[in-house]
Every structure is written in C-alpha cells, then in structure tokens.
Design goal:
Layout (H helix, E strand, L loop, with lengths): L1 E4 L5 H11 L8 H9 L3 E10 L2 E14 L6 E9 L8 H15 L3 E7 L3 H9 L3 E6 L10 E6 L6
Helix pairs in contact: 1-2
Length: about 160
C-alpha cells in the first residue's frame, strides 16, 4: 500500500467512494474535494493499492483542517472513508496514524464529528484518545442523524 497526499486527479474517486459510504447523507462531490485539496490549511491523504510501478486505486482517504494561529493551532478532521471492499484491513488506522502525527507535530488538539450509531468509528477514535464532548442533534443531513463531537488533547496535555 502507498500513502500520499491527495491531488486534484484523486477527487473523482473520493467522490465515488463518498456516494457509496454516505448514501443517506450529503456526500461530497468532486468539486468539493477539489476545493478542499486546494485550501492552504487542509491536509488530505490517500491510501492506494500497490500495483507494481503504476499507481494503484485509491482505497481510502482522510482529511483535516488546521484552524487558528500557526503557533497555537487546533485541527478538525473533515472526513475519513475506506472502500467497503477493503474495510477492516487497517487502512483507516494508517490514515489516522498520519493525521495524528501531523497534529502531534504541532502539539495541537483535534476535533471531529461522528454519527452516534457508527460504533466501529467511535471505537477507533477512542483508541486514539478521543473523548465524547457532546451531541449535535440532527447534524447529518438529509437523514437528521445525530453526531457526537469528540476531541483529542494535544500531545503535551496527554
């Protein structure tokens, strides 16, 4: 498997996976991913199937934004998703390892929202030190599903 920062050419595959992973919500379009990739304070990473010398297919993606001043930032995870045919193989964990490394390099706190019924994701986030800070009612649209707001303290606070 190859891990690298996502590029504009990866946006279509990300949007394709979004439609599969989040059909009852408002999945991000190719254009939304393009805007996210271009923003100077976001970091998007992909996990690609290793295919000899050729670049393989995108299996998973994750992205977060740096908020606040550079000398005292915090991060917010915007999205993470893994192709259903490749879930439970450690891809999400590899993506999270890289996102948390970036946040730890800045000694920054990290926030995210997750559906209250997404038990596998919640369990993974808890393994990374995230704790539940509260519920956002009707956060996901159009389904109206609730979300937990979770946070992970900075490296120096752990």
């Amino acid at each position: 498997m190859e891990m690298r920062e996502l590029r504009p050419g990866d946006a279509a595959r990300c949007a394709e996976l979004e439609k599969i992973l989040f059909p009852d919500e408002n999945p991000w379009s190719e254009n939304v991913f393009m805007v996210e990739f271009a923003h100077p304070h976001t970091f998007y990473l992909g996990a690609f199937e290793q295919d000899g010398d050729a670049e393989g297919q995108l299996l998973g993606y994750a992205g977060m934004a740096m908020l606040g001043p550079r000398d005292d930032p915090e991060f917010e995870i915007h999205t993470i998703g893994v192709d259903p045919g490749h879930q439970r193989r450690g891809i999400a964990r590899l993506l999270m390892d890289n996102l948390m490394l970036v946040a730890d390099n800045f000694d920054a706190q990290v926030f995210l929202e997750v559906r209250t019924d997404n038990e596998p994701a919640i369990a993974m986030y808890e393994r990374y030190g995230f704790t539940n800070q509260g519920i956002r009612r009707n956060y996901y649209q159009p389904s109206g599903a609730d979300a937990y707001t979770m946070s992970r303290p900075s490296r120096s606070e752990r």
